[in-house]
Amino acid sequence: MVRGYAVSLIALVALAACDEGPGGQMVRSAPDTRLAGGELKTLPQSGMGNSGGVLSHGSEAPAAGVEATMVYNAGGRANGAVVQFHNGPMTGVGVACTRAGGGPVVECAAQNATQAFLLNELSGSHAYAGAFAVNGYGPDQNQNGFVAIHASPTDAQYVRLPGEAVSYTGAFQAGGGLIHEGQRFNGRVNGTSMIEADFAAGTLGMAFNGQVVDDRTNLSAPLHAGVENAAIALDGRFHNTVDTTFSYGGQAAFGELDGAFYGPSAEEAAATFGFGNDLGGMTGIALGCSSYSATNCIAPTPRF
Questions:
Q1: What is the Cα–Cα distance from 109 to 80, expressed in whole angstroms?
Q2: What is the DSSP string of 126-142?
Q3: Which residues contact 143 (CB under 8 A, 6 or more apart)?
Q4: pLDDT tens-digit profile of 110-125?
Q5: Are residues 237 and 257 in contact, defined by beta-carbon separation less than 8 angstroms?
Q6: Which domains does the chain have, with CATH numbers?
Q7: Which of 80, 82, 151, 231 could be bridged to 33 by S-S, CB 3.0 to 4.6 A?
């Protein structure tokens, strides 16, 4: 059920990079990419996760993007977490997930919605990225959506941005589709991700190398995608602008990217994305570390 739902969500919507303004209201971050002369910046980090957009089910039109806050339940990671959506069509919807006995979370309890599933998650020491299917929300409880967020679910902290170029290596997970050698593949997408962040110039690029596994046949096809010339903002977040270019399956694409740097010295980066072209598209999450190994970056088992 969950897998079929995720595969149908091949659509894209705009993102909003948001901060908490005076009085607690959510306001859009200024797209200022200046990081003067490589000077180190110490920036507040709110723990606010920005969604990759709410994607409608089936043929419905895409809904607007949302913002969400994620916090761990009392006792920390082992007791699960709660995600609360703040605006857009999912205002007031809460999703609570627990990992009983350390096993995988398949379904999450939902508030102001009839059902919720955790589809994908990536966890580091400082950052978390997750994708959720939420069914039955809205005034008539008849709307279905897919939400991807990145967040720092730990206590509020400060991140100091480096003044030079830094590479981040990690992983990505998505739902998507691709036409490869005349055959269509629809299903799970995963692989490695590389982020190249030039903090002095305020620019960022990403490369995705992986595979899409068709849910019906279990056959796979190679997938390569990329983002060039995204902007690093002064608040420690990064996002696409009118100058950003996307590629998918070796061809030019359109899309959206929203992410942030996490950890005291920006040791980790997490992002949500959605992009594609005539060959198909994917929507999902990515997380990477500046000092990467198989054990120190992406958790061997998710830490939700």
A1: 11
A2: S-EEEEEEEEEETTTT-
A3: 56, 63, 89, 136, 137
A4: 999 999 988 888 888 8
A5: no
A6: 2-18+28-33+45-156 (no CATH), 158-289 (2.40.160.90)
A7: 231
The token pair that represents 219 in the structure block? 């056959």
Instruction: Write out the two tokens for 121.
Output: 């998650």
CB 262 within 8 A of CB 268: yes
Residues of the chain with pLDDT under 50: 1-48, 50-64
Residues belonging to the chain: 304
Rg of the chain over all Cα atoms, to the nearest angstrom: 18
**Residues 164-217: pLDDT tens digits?**
999 999 999 998 899 999 999 999 999 999 999 999 999 999 999 999 999 999
The one-letter code for the residue type at 209 is: N
Separation of alpha carbons 118 and 122, rounded Å: 11
